Amino acid sequence: MKQCLTRISPKLETAINYRYSCGEWLNWKEPQDINAKINWLKVNVYYNNPEITKCIDKYLVREWLKEKGKEELCPMLYGVYDKPEEINWDNLPCQVVIKCNHTCGANLIVKDKSKLDVDDAIKKLRQWQKEDYWKEGEVQYKFIKKKIIAEEYLGDGVNLKTFKFFCFNGEPKVLYLSMEEDKYIDYYDMDFLKLPYSLPKHEHCPYNLKKPEKFNDMVHIARKLSAGFPFVRVDLYDSYGKIYLSELTFVPTGGYMKIEPQEVLREWGEWLEL
After folding, report:
1. CA distances from residue 141 to 42, 49, 52, 198, 208 in whole angstroms, order as listed
2. Entry pTM
3. Is residue 150 within 8 Å of residue 94, measured between CB atoms?
4. Contacts (Cβ under 8 Å, ≥6 apart) of 209
5. Using one digit for the tens of pLDDT, what is the confidence trace for 20-56?
6. CB 3.0-4.6 Å disulfide test: which of 76, 174, 225, 249 passes with 233?
């Protein structure tokens, strides 16, 4: 049903899904909370927008970063392919990340290539390439030309942290810090002070984290990359003290965030000027 509605009318699909997920109809004329405003942006600004398409394309975002003078944020690129059969596995390093550029979560994290089942990897990549993620209501992904990329492995566990900066009209205001593949999630302000927010079904970090040495640099990067956008979440990796771009996320959680306490959603909505 969702795919049919998305093909017919992204706005209709968004309205119905918002009603189902948030318990009320989306006010298109005067959206209030952050979820309502993000869904408004998705349909009215981010859909069929060439710059947005480039930014969320996991391959073309490299070109966008170069235009911004920030190509150093790109992990090393080993190869770009139209289909998995083109991959020369022998030429790839022992540790590598292979991902599809047009969707979310379609990543092969290869920590030891000698243990990789190549046939199974090709099967997964074929399946991912068949998927049209945009038909699930994420219409901002519709115009991406599908590719597979192989890039640098950046680490895992405590050695790889993901700093996700929620940026409102070009200003980073809230960070969510993810560790150990989203097992631990906490929210911080721009002074790296922990905020009393939580994400359902996720644990708070048990470690006593200090403000990262390059935290102010990350804030500066988030501010620079978010300039000109009404809303975007700038996701950065801290890999052994070096900063990389993970991705630019314009519609987090599909536009249906469940942050607690729920009053936060209204507060964030007030920060976002349409």
Report:
1. 10, 10, 9, 28, 38
2. 0.93
3. no
4. 177
5. 888 899 999 999 999 999 999 999 999 999 999 999 9
6. 249
